[in-house]
Structures are given as C-alpha cells and as structure tokens.
C-alpha cells in the first residue's frame, strides 16, 4: 500500500516550463513543489528524451522554504522564487502555512 495520497496530476506535467526543463537538464533543478501529488518515489519521467527518477516525495510548509530550497527549484534565491510564483499565479497569496508536495528528482544516468 502506498503511504501517499492519490495523484492529482500526471507525472508528465511535473516540470513543464522550458527554463525549468533546461535547469533540470543542467542539474541545477532537482526539486519541484506542487500543491498536489504528481509522482511517487522511484517513478521515472523524461525531459527532452533524458530520463529522470523521482527520489523522494515529502510535505513542506511553503513558509519553511530556504534559499537552498529555492536553488533546488532552479532559482537563485527564495525572494526570486516567491516573486516569480506570485507572478505566474495571479491572485495567489503567499501563505507560510500552505502545504506543498516536494518532488525530489535526479537524472537517471
């Protein structure tokens, strides 16, 4: 039995933005935060034909993010991550206690 809830979206939608795909391919992006579950540990996906594997799935309060977490998301700082997320999701408020799912992954070379 899986200890995680049912998926809310397909794994192929985990990393979609071209800049984030490029950051993943370059090894600069190793995490993706989502409000739902897109993949389980040990699941595989491809970005531009390159295989990746999900290494971990965990819950986190968005307010607990650090600069290191933002860098794992492919952004230089938490402030830049927060700014871009709020621009991408019009009307969204940054609520420190909002929980997200952290999908950790790596290239499967």
From TrEMBL:
Name of the molecule in the record: ASCH domain-containing protein
């Amino acid at each position: 039995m899986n200890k995680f809830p049912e998926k809310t979206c397909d794994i192929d939608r985990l990393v979609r933005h071209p800049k984030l795909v490029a950051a993943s391919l370059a090894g600069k992006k190793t995490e993706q935060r989502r409000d739902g579950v897109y993949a389980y540990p040990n699941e595989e996906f491809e970005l531009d034909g390159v295989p990746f594997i999900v290494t971990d799935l965990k819950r986190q309060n968005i307010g607990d993010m650090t600069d290191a977490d933002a860098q794992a998301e492919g952004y230089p700082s938490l402030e830049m991550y927060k700014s871009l997320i709020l621009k991408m999701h019009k009307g969204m408020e940054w609520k420190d206690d909002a929980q997200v799912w952290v999908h950790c992954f790596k290239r499967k070379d």
